Amino acid sequence: MDSTRKNRQIVIDSQALATLSFAQEGIFKPVDKLMNKEEAIEVDSTRCYKGKPFPFPFILAPSGRKNEEVISSIKKGEKIDLVVDRDIRGYIIADGFFEINRRNRIEQIFGNYDTQNPATRAFLNRLGKYSIYGKYSVNYDGIKNVKKDIKDAIKSSGAKSVAAIMMDARPFHRAHERLLRITLEKTDLVVVFLSKHQRKTDKISYETKRDILKYAIDNYLPKNRVLVVPFESTYLFAGFNDAILDCICANNFGCNKFIIGNNHTGIGLYYDKNEIKSILSKYESLDINIEVISKFVYCKDCKTLVNTSTCPHGPHRHIKYNSKALRRFFRIGILPPAVLMRTDISSKFLSACMPNRFENINTLYDDIFPNSGLLEDHSEEDFYLNLMKLHQTTSLT
Predict the structure, then answer these.
(1) Whose CA is closest to 166, among 59, 58, 280, 270?
(2) Mean pLDDT score across all residues of the chain
(3) C-alpha of 39 from chain center
(4) pLDDT tens-digit profile of 170-208?
C-alpha cells in the first residue's frame, strides 16, 4: 500500500522555476544539475564546468526560515517537493546540502557587493543560507516550447546560419530595426529573444512588447526570416555575466551566431594588438560566433542613421537612440520624433502606455482633423498618427 504521507516542501518563485528549467532542458549545457559544494568551489575558481565556460556555480538556495529548516534537515534520498504559488511544480531527490557564503554569491553574480543597487538588494532578499543539491525535475513548459519553436523554424526555413539577438524593445526604435537589417544581410534566420522580465515601474506588458515588435517585423522586415521568442531573463541574468549566459543559452537553443552591442553592460571592450576584444573573447571555446556591433546614431551631417565606427563626425553631431530617454517621452505622454521611432510604432506604444487617455476620442478627432462627414470610430492610435502629421506640416512654419 502506498504511503499517503506528504513530502516536505521548499517554496520557490517563478524565476527560480524558470532557472531550473534552463538547466533541465539543456540550455545551460553542460550544466544539467544543481552543483554540490566541491563542484561549486571549482566553478567559482575556474569559471568552467566540465571544460566548458560557466560564470558561477549553479545552485538553489531559497530564502525563508521554513525553507532553511527543511534544507538543513534533509535526509539523503528524501524527495522534496518544489512549490510555486502554492502549486507543486516539481521535486528534488535530495543528495545533500551545504552552507553558502552569501556575500561571495552576490559578488559572483554582480561583480561587487553594492547593497545600494536595487537588483543586488532584490537578489540578497531571495538568497538563503543553504544550498540543496540532487536530481530534480520541474514542470515548466516555457523553455521547452521556445526550443521547439526555434528547432521548427530552422527546419522549415532550411537555415544554415542562425543569429541570436537579445532584446528588451522598451521601446522598439529605429536602431533596433537597423540592427535587424544588417544581421539579416549576413544570416539566414534571426532569432529575437525578447525579454520577459517585468519591472515594477513598467506599464508595458511582455505581450504588448511582443505584439508591437511583431507588427514592426511584419510590416518592415522579411517576416519569414525573423522569429520572436520569449526569453526568461531570470535573476541569474541580473549581473555583469549576463552576456556570457546569453551566449551559452543562444548556442544551446540552436543559434550559431550571437549579436551584441558594444555598449552592453559588462562586455568590457579592450584592444589587443589593434583588435577589439571583449570579456567574451575569453570564452572562445563556446561553439558560437560572437559579433560585437558598434552602436547606431543619427548623424546630423551624414543625415542618416549610421554606425559610430564608420561615421567621421564626432558625438556632438549625433542624435542617440537611448531607450531610457524614449521611455521618458512616453511617461509624460509625448510622441518621440520620427527620426527616433517610426510614427506608427510610437503611436502603438504610447496608446499602450496611456490607455483611455481621452474621454471622447472620436469628438476630439473630428474637432481637429478632416473627416468625410460620416460618423466614424477612431482609436487613440489613429489620433496620434494624424497628430504627428500635423507636427510635420511645414507650410506655416
Answers:
(1) 280
(2) 89
(3) 28
(4) 999 999 999 999 999 999 999 999 998 766 666 789 999
Which residue has 476630439 as its cell numbers?
364
Give how many domains the chain has, as a whole number.
Answer: 3
* pLDDT number for residue 282: 60
CA–CA separation, 377 and 123 (whole Å) = 48
> Residue 339 is part of which domain span?
325-391
Q: Residue count of the chain, please give it.
A: 397
Is 307 inside any structural domain? no
3-class secondary-structure state, position 80: strand
Rg (CA), the chain: 24
Distance CA 347, CA 210 (A): 15
Cell of 141: 513548459
Q: What is the CATH number of the domain that holds 174?
A: 3.40.50.620
Among candidate residues 298, 313, 339, the one where a domain is terminated: 298
Residue 273, pLDDT score: 45
The more confidently predicted of residues 379 and 135 is 135
Return the bridge partners of 80, or none: 8, 92
Which SS3 state, helix, strand or coil, does residue 352 take? helix
Same-domain check for residues 175 and 266: yes
For the question of whether the overall pTM of this predicted structure is more than 0.90, the answer is no
Q: Which triple of cell numbers denotes residue 10? A: 521548499
User: What is the pLDDT, as a whole number, of residue 78?
Assistant: 97
Does residue 161 share a domain with residue 54? no
